[in-house]
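Final report, closing paragraph on structural work. Over the funding period we assembled a curated collection of sequence-structure pairs, and we close with a single example.
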Amino acid sequence: MTPSLIKMWISFAGIGAFAIAALMVAVSHTKLSGWFATLVRVIAFVIFLFGTLIMIYVVASGPTGG
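Its predicted structure, as stored:
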C-alpha cells in the first residue's frame, strides 16, 4: 500500500474512535446511571484522546505527495 492509503486508514481509525466515544457518552447519558455511567464516560474520554492523537499525527505529518 502507498503511504497515502496508509494515512487514509489511520485517519479512518481516528474518525472511528471519535464516533465510538460519542456513542458511548450518549448511551451513558441516556441509558446508564451511577458509577457504571461514570466508568463508561471515562473510557469514552480515553478513546477520544486516542482519536485526538491520531488526528494530530495525520495533520502534523503533512501531505504525502502521492
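The chain is about 80% helix and 0% strand. Helices lie at 3-30, 35-60. We thank the funder for supporting this effort.
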